[in-house]
Structure formats: structure tokens, C-alpha cells
Amino acid sequence: MERSIKVIGTGIYIPKTVVTAEELDKKLSLPSGWTLKKSGVRVRHFITNETASKMGAKAAVQAVENAGIRLEDIDCIISGSGTMEQPIPCNAALIQKELSLEESGIPCFDINTTCLSFVKGFDLASYLIDSGRYKTILIVSSEISSIGLNWKQKESAVLFGDGAAAVVVQKPRKEESSHILTARMETYSVGASHSEIPGGGTKIHPREHAHLSEEHFLFQMNGQAIFRLSSRLLPAFMEKLFAGTNITMNALKAVIPHQASGMALRILQKKLNIPDAVFINNIENYGNTIAASIPIALHEAIEQGRIKRGDLVMLIGTSAGLSIGGVIFEY
Amino acid sequence: MERSIKVIGTGIYIPKTVVTAEELDKKLSLPSGWTLKKSGVRVRHFITNETASKMGAKAAVQAVENAGIRLEDIDCIISGSGTMEQPIPCNAALIQKELSLEESGIPCFDINTTCLSFVKGFDLASYLIDSGRYKTILIVSSEISSIGLNWKQKESAVLFGDGAAAVVVQKPRKEESSHILTARMETYSVGASHSEIPGGGTKIHPREHAHLSEEHFLFQMNGQAIFRLSSRLLPAFMEKLFAGTNITMNALKAVIPHQASGMALRILQKKLNIPDAVFINNIENYGNTIAASIPIALHEAIEQGRIKRGDLVMLIGTSAGLSIGGVIFEY
């Protein structure tokens, strides 16, 4: 079932501190060139004193400006992030506060399915927009990965960066046709431990940090296992994603994958046979910014004129869970 | 806009370990009777070795049995919990795994707005059901509060309990009229720090536990401030909640409030002038089980015959954020 939804503005916030592949080679005592070759990331950005809500608010202000609306026009704030700023309350409420909307009453909630949180938030927002429940929804993905990286697990640690993106959506006007054509998500928890942070929630309280190895509270990833599982799932998933539409891959003007790793992007592009001209790949500039990676790439593709009104765009990726998800929409 | 949704089954899981008000009086060196008087909670249950996903899975199995369906009929799993079992991946994926559905592909995601997470999950699920996106959604709220309580802050620590609830929803058959009449949520982040756990997320990593006081990683609550803010907001909120309907409070056969505290329940009942016969209050048996409190009470009210098909039911509460939210639905 198609749902009307129009992206009316996007914005990003990238922390100032630049960390180059060469710096990581030195920091981790690796041969020169190792980090870039393994990750495909030339530069990632790490926070200094930013919080996720501060980054998210800055991205939101830019998105609202680009949309030509005022902050007060927003009537729903969704955080679509894979990381929590605090265990309580939810990210969206903290972002509302940073936007000085603390007396606005704008409803705030979080949607979390790790790296696919933005995609799921956009998908769910379409029902709320199409039905008229809300008129102007702000979706924010703001991620601080740098605090939880395991530098002993070099292959994963060198992939990640911090960053935030925000997207404002509304119902299109009558003469406009922006909508979601199809959306699909599948979760295979057989891969739940392929990428995880075991400790810090209710299973292993932070107080256990004194007794357990630090690894329990850091990101762990089995890249090979993720690769095998997602390779097995991808063909059938893509078939089902397109099944409800009357288009094929050729109709897409842009494919925006989750920027998981340089290798993951190369394999995805090859497997799906996506031409360079439509494949949006910015991992060398930001690294894997968890759920923010897709909306950051969306923002850049729009800014660079690679996506125009009427174009069909695919968002696609995998996330911890393990989940695989995608949306095809008309911009 | 009304949305068709039918609760076809509910289930709960309550941990075996019983903690009485008298035991807490002794543990906290308080005069006999203090805990019960302050909290209204005679008995709360704390986990021994349960995880949130194990509790959620047990509640889900009961809900599926009560619904007369099989686990394999579920085509979407939503976790509506205020606590995370692990920072990564999301709760819903971990619950899928505990249900031995790890190769099912059933999509899993979390919705979090602390104590209102179930209410928001139910509200959002109605769009997915009404539109036909999913046929059978499992919504699970599973909460372990006991691990994060601050026993130096006695007034809040004595309120909480652990527990889980699950609800299965489908589209009603043609001859049935189960639906959501109205739903509303408002967030006022001016109260974001009135109840919070500051540490454990990306703002304060668990490694800081060694350097900061333990309070940073425990639940903090300013009950007076929450009370003042929610009392100010409630009247206008209720008016707007009912505005889109042609019913008044008198039409409700059950009002299921978030079981925040004995005092909060007394004040809510008095302010809204709700007769005992329709007011569902089970806090003395479970305490405040965060987002699980409303679906646990819903499950009991159905089991006890206090809610019958065709009855109008209100779910209502406040949560950290600070948010206020409510749904009115026909069971």
C-alpha cells in the first residue's frame, strides 16, 4: 500500500574533530595504509564535547531552515537512532529540549532498530503523515559511536564515525506525488550476537564495569558472520521488496545504502548491479555513522543535485539484530 | 481518525521473587509501614536470573496461546519498553531469539517513550494493522527496574517492580468493531530531568562508573516536580483527547492508568472523577513496572472479566520526558 510522504527538508551535523586513516594507523601501530584499505574510510569525525541531542538539534535546525518552515510547525519528533544518550528519558525528548521546545508539547518518541532506525522511522512516519495524524514530522538520527568502540578489535573500530542527520516530512500537496512505493524489513535474530554491545543495559548494569572486562561494554562485531548471513538473505529480500511495485532496479535514480563499510558497499553494489551514477557512497568522508549514515547520504545527494523531485530513491541496509530493511520512495 | 485494531490475546510474566513492603522497611531501616504508606505497593517482584527478553518471551507465549494462534502467525514484533536489555541490538530482536523465531525473518523494532512505550506501540501498531501492512503484531513490554534503583532515594526505589506483558493485535473481522477511537501524546521536556538515568548511554559511558558517584547510573526522580507538571497538563490534555470523539468519560467501561504510585493513582482518579468500578488499580501487587504496568493491568482486567468485547477502554499515563499520553479503544 502506497503512502503519501514528502521530504521537505534535510540537515546534518558533523563534529569538528577529524580523525584520518593515517592517524589511526599510527594510533593502532598498524602499517601505513591498513585502516583505509580495511575500512574504506579516509576521514571520520569524533565528538569532543557534543552530546547526541546537541548534534541532533543542530541537524534539525538546518533541516527546518531548508524546509522553509519554523521549528514551531513541527508536531511530532521521532528519534531514529541506534544509540541512547541516556537510558532514561528517550532521545527525542532530549532533542526537543535542545531545540528550546520544552514547553511545546510536541510528542516525542524513539524508534530503534540500530542502523536501520532512520529507515524504520521514515517508514512509520509515512502512516502518521498519510493518515493526517501529524502534519510535520521531524525525524532525527544522531549517533556517537566513538565512545563505545573496542580499539582492540581494529577491524570494526576503524569503520565508525559520529554524526547526525535530520529530515522533515509532510504530506505532499495535491498536485505533488511524493510517496513511499514499498517498504520491507526482516529480522533474523540468529545473527543477534554478530554485532552487539552486551553490557550497559538491564542485563549487565554499568556497575559491573568494575568486575568484567571492558569488552562487555564496547561494540563487538563478527564481520564475516554478518557478511555470510546478509549475503544469503539479500536476493530474496530484494525480490520481495520490489514485488508490490511495478518498477525494477533500473527505475531508481538513487540507491542510498547504509554506509556499513567500504567492502560492504562494494559487494552490495556488485550484487545488485547498481551503476556508479545512482549509487550513493560517502563512507570515505564519514565512516559508518550507524543510523545517521543513510540520512546523511540522503542530505548530501539532495544538496548535490543527485536527487530531484519525482526521482525514485531506495534506502537499503542491514543492522544489528540482524535486520535487513529497505524503502523505495518518490522524492 | 479511527483505526481498526483488535486485541486478540494478552499474557504476562511476573518474576517469582516476592519483595514485600515490610521487607523493604527492614532493609532500608524505616519505621514499619513506611514503604506501604509511601508507595501503595504491598508486593513487588524482582528478577533473580531472568533477562528482559526471557520475561518478554514468556509473556508472549501466553498471549499467543490466549489468542489461539501460533507463534509463526506473528508478522511483526514491537518492543514497547522503557529499558534496554543491551545497548545493541534492540529488545525486539532479543525477544524474537528467545521465542526460537531466529530464522523467521519477522521484523523487529523498539518503540521507546519510557513508561508510555506500550501505549505508543499500541497506537502505532493500529496504523500498521488498519492499513494491512501487518496482520498479526506482537507488542511486548518487559522491564527490569530493580537493577537500576537508587536505594538512597527511598521514595522512588520503593515504587518499582519487574515484570512483562505481551499483547497480540489483529484487524477485527468485518462483523467486529474493535478500534482506536482517539489517541494523543504530548511531551514537555521542561521536565526531562524530573525522572532520568543520566549515565550508561553515549553521554556517560559505563566506564565512567569508576570515576563518578553510582547515582549517575541509577534512577533519579523528583516526584513533586512531576506531580506539579502533570497536574498542570492533565485537564487540557484530557479535553483534547476526547475532542475528536463523541463520547465522554462516562462511556468508558475501564480506565487503565500507568501504575506510577499509589498517590499518583489516587490523585488521577479523583481529578478525573473516575468511579472505582472502572478504575483499574493493581499497584499494590506489582508496583510500578514502567511500560509493562499498563498491559499487565489490561491483561488482568480482561482475565477478571472487567473488560468485555465492545467495551470502551482508556489507557492513560505520564512518562519520563515528561510525556503525557492516552488511547481510547473499543476492546
From TrEMBL, chains A, B:
<dbReference type="GO" id="GO:0044550">
    <property type="term" value="P:secondary metabolite biosynthetic process"/>
</dbReference>
<keyword id="KW-0808">Transferase</keyword>
<dbReference type="Pfam" id="PF08541">
    <property type="entry name" value="ACP_syn_III_C"/>
</dbReference>
<dbReference type="InterPro" id="IPR013751">
    <property type="entry name" value="ACP_syn_III_N"/>
</dbReference>
<dbReference type="GO" id="GO:0006633">
    <property type="term" value="P:fatty acid biosynthetic process"/>
</dbReference>
<protein>
    <submittedName>
        <fullName>Beta-ketoacyl-ACP synthase III</fullName>
    </submittedName>
</protein>
<dbReference type="InterPro" id="IPR013747">
    <property type="entry name" value="ACP_syn_III_C"/>
</dbReference>
<dbReference type="Pfam" id="PF08545">
    <property type="entry name" value="ACP_syn_III"/>
</dbReference>
<dbReference type="GO" id="GO:0004315">
    <property type="term" value="F:3-oxoacyl-[acyl-carrier-protein] synthase activity"/>
</dbReference>
<feature type="domain" description="Beta-ketoacyl-[acyl-carrier-protein] synthase III N-terminal">
    <location>
        <begin position="109"/>
        <end position="188"/>
    </location>
</feature>
<keyword id="KW-0012">Acyltransferase</keyword>
<dbReference type="InterPro" id="IPR016039">
    <property type="entry name" value="Thiolase-like"/>
</dbReference>
<feature type="domain" description="Beta-ketoacyl-[acyl-carrier-protein] synthase III C-terminal">
    <location>
        <begin position="245"/>
        <end position="331"/>
    </location>
</feature>
